[in-house]
Amino acid sequence: MRYEFILNFNFQTSATTLTWMLYELALHPDVQEKMHEEVTRVIGTNKSPSIEKYYELIFVRNAVQETLRKRPPISLIPKLCRTKTTIGDYEIPENTEVYLNAYEAQHDERYWKSPHSFIPERFDPTSDYYTKRPSGTLIPFSIGHRKCIGSRYEFFTLIITLKDSVKLRQRW
Prior knowledge:
It is elongated, with a radius of gyration of 18 Å. It has one domain: CATH 1.10.630.10. The protein is built from 7 helices and 4 strands; from the N terminus they run ααααββββααα. The protein has 172 residues and is mainly alpha-helical. Helix 2 (29-42) runs antiparallel to helix 4. The model is unreliable at 1-8 (pLDDT under 50). The termini are far apart. The protein has helices at 2-27, 29-42, 51-55, 58-70, 102-105, 128-131, 151-168; strands at residues 76-81, 85-87, 90-92, 96-101. It has a two-stranded antiparallel ribbon.
């Protein structure tokens, strides 16, 4: 039963993220065009590209990350505080369930310029903005050694699906 829950949960979050991604692409044809150009350049007509080719889809990856930032599939992430802990002025007793608020962390104007705008370029790994962003400001799959084990699966599922959707655009 536990494995069925994990698999169902992962498919559900992937479907939710894909839905939001397609919505954002409909609102931003310029982003859709950049993705189309990158997929055409990197993948071409290859129907079965190697995993290395997927790593070359930088802008597609950036757009997926921006979707996960702007519209996290899970807004509140439960955690168990196993030991007595102090965070700022707050003392958390041991064995207390706490929640990470992914939506708020990913829309905090101290760390994200124009947090309600869809800007995939903010995830360009060569930008100062990307490299200087503090840890814990992007947590769609939680954070730390107990983060979601399906995060890589979801990420590649989205990229593969989007790659095929963007390629289909050629026929539209």
